[in-house]
Specification:
alpha+beta; Creatine Kinase, Chain A, domain 2; Four Helix Bundle (Hemerythrin (Met), subunit A); 3 domains; 6-stranded mixed β-sheet; 18 strands; globular; binds adenosine-5'-diphosphate; binds magnesium ion
Length: 727
Amino acid sequence: MKSLRTIALKEAQNRVSPEVTAPSTKISDFFGSNVFDKKKMKDFLTKEVYEKLISTIGQGELLNQEDANQIASAMKTWAMAKGVTHYTHWFQPLTGSTAEKHDSFFEPSSEGAIEKFAGSALVQQEPDASSFPNGGIRNTFEARGYTAWDPSSPAFIMESKAGKTLCIPTVFVSYTGEALDFKAPLLKAVAALDKAAVDVCQYFDKGITKVNASLGIEQEYFLVDLSLFNARPDLALTGRTLFGHMSAKGQQLEDHYFGSIPERVFAYMVDFENEALKLGIPLKTRHNEVAPSQFECAPIYEEINLAIDHNQLLMDVMEKVARRHNFKVLLHEKPYAGVNGSGKHNNWSLITDTGKNLLAPGKTPKNNLMFLTFFVNTIKAVCEHADLLRASITSVSNDHRLGANEAPPAIISIFLGQQLDEILDEIEHSRISKKTKEENGLWLGIPKVPQILLDNTDRNRTSPFAFTGNKFELRAVGSSANSSAPMTVLNAIVADQLVKFKVDVDKLIKKGDKKDVALLTVIKKYIKESKNIRFEGNGYSQEWADEAAKRGLSNIKTTPKALDALVSEKTTELFTKTNIFSQRELHARHEILLENFYKKLQIEARVMGEVTHSQILPAAIAYQNTLIENAKGLKELGLSKEAIATPLAIINQLSKHIGEIKTNIDAMLAQRKVINNIEDTRDKAIGYDEKVKVYFDTIRYHTDKLEQIVDDSLWPLPKFRELLFLK
Ligand code: ADP
Ligand code: MG
């Protein structure tokens, strides 16, 4: 019988890409064609309702029942004309993926069947959601949660061969009002930041009435042939390879990054981009990444809530389209040991309704002061809440990046680039002149901030949080994560910081300082206080780990401990004060994340046991039997001891590794049994991390040794060289 690996290899070699045709050669012709966007709203709604909806989107005002009915009816008309039969509330539960529950427009009635979509169905739905993670917030007897429309993210149509569905982006909350998803807290944090930033903007420009956080999410991913993927139970069940010896050629030649994109991959990229563009996702960039078979795409930045919805939707589209191309897209942070992992860089800035980017250095001294205000407050916020930011990006899969010497380290620091670093130093050590002097570009002694920063600030890839000219880039987010978690934190801590800033500045103004003097005095104070978090050097180096320890910065490498910051006193105060999370919600989230952590390790441990026992050991033993036959044969022929020595040596080697694997798998199983009995979730998670996961490397070491010795034709799992180099 042919092995699955052999069949898969054959299939992978003979792939033909499906025909990919764009709806038009001009992207602008079909961009957003599946979105009920502002233009369509205008076409399908009365002027009055349209304007109300726009102000709802802008100001978060409530819609009345009648208007909701009209909007629902308009959406239905538009959607049905495009062949839609069903609608769903589309939400982001804490599982990490998106969720849908489809209902048909169709309804039987006394006058015959009709298609209906009432305003109430648009605004609210009650999915039976008892099996979504809720961290103890809902007992099953009060299992119902409800989803509520988020009008700031437009409805869209999901197409599939079998039919089309109208998707309505919603928040997901419990009956008692607690958030059960990623979106509800994000919207609250975004609103808090808007208010705090607008208040601070008043020092500079009274015309500013709204500040939006903007976000551009770069998405890294791996592609693997679907048949090869299916022949790897570890990949299929855990998203990463638990075994596999590194291929002789990996990324050492550095020949993949920005190299030419393989034809088959290119077809896939164009195909999913077309789908994404129809959904209004403004994809702009595509390229190879550092590791073989690793790629990246990036959209043009958008308002933060929309950007995150779009990223969630994009991951979904990428997975669906991959199937058409017989690919599997791997969004796991570390699918292959020994090659780079994947992240999701979050590029973040603040943009006013007057069109000003608050994190872009300005031309005039006044603009400089405004830039410095938001720039320094962001640094101060991250400095104050570094542990919380660390907690917001932690997960079992991201531990492979953050804990190891790869990607950004687990120490949160901020990279500014030499020029800005020097400017902050200069302000810190300057004396603030209380007289206004505009000549020589100097004003109150503020150094001039160049508009275009000379050094390529983007090149320090070892920093988890880097300033890149007109935005900050949080690079520590994992490729599979929902960006809402870190972005809720970032917006909340900056909002809180800006509120404190205003209090501090107003105090000085009250004491008689001129406004600009007061602003600069507080900025100077914050620069001093947040100095520790700034680091310009190599974030991967041991020197930095030592230096960071001296500075008192945390370096928490694993999730169960990193998550402590989510329920600390400081965090609870921050979130309850800003009304983003109640204490109960925080504890629920903490519990869910810990559970998620140990359950994933539990699955990995099980898969490891099963694959070694049922696939790897049998292959090794089969090969060993062949060698035994061989040794016996040689002996029968009367050959010398030396001649038999080679098969015997290999037989011995095999025995050693087989024995080690068996011993370690058994020991791991025994540990699991002990740890499964631990009640406390945090202790259980730490138990899995410290007492179970530790066996993984040893078991892998021995299976990878076997992979190198055992007859290739007997080896059951596709090897790294086969998985990583797409034909
Ligand atoms: P790199 O790979 O050099 O980091 P990319 O061009 O791949 O850069 O991605 C940069 C991302 O940052 C894009 O999504 C881009 O739209 C986004 N971006 C640019 N300016 C801003 C901004 N002001 N606010 C938020 N995101 C931004
Ligand atoms: Mg980047």
